[in-house]
Predict the 3D structure of the following.
Amino acid sequence: MSSRKLELVELPDGRREFGWIQDGLPTFPFRFAPSGLATRRQLRAAGLCPGGQDVVAQIVWRRGKAWAGLYRVDLAKPKRIPSAGQRHAWQAAMTARRRCIRCGRDAGYYLPRTTRTCWTCENTAATAA
């Protein structure tokens, strides 16, 4: 990572905040993002999504090895809510991932995609071999 020097950088809405330019984006240290900007997770927690907008800034931590894009909150859109049919289909798919293909029981956990068998069936197959 190149040496960074805190200076005033201009945000897309015209405000100026202390940060630096990295990879063509205004960059801020962890926990110092300006108000009005949020990460994808923060938007999700607020019931919003980026809504197709591009990243306008970023925050970095772990000496520049980790980063997260920042989006404008005022341009964010409400999260889409799945219909009852979509929720039912998702629930059926998750239930299928828990059902063992050998014994047919609900294992109580998601089975490995490679075998789709529970631990009991795997152990009995291993001891029989």
The two ends are 54 Å apart (CA to CA). The chain has a mean pLDDT of 91. The longest helix spans residues 84-98. Residues 26 and 56 are 7 Å apart (CA to CA).
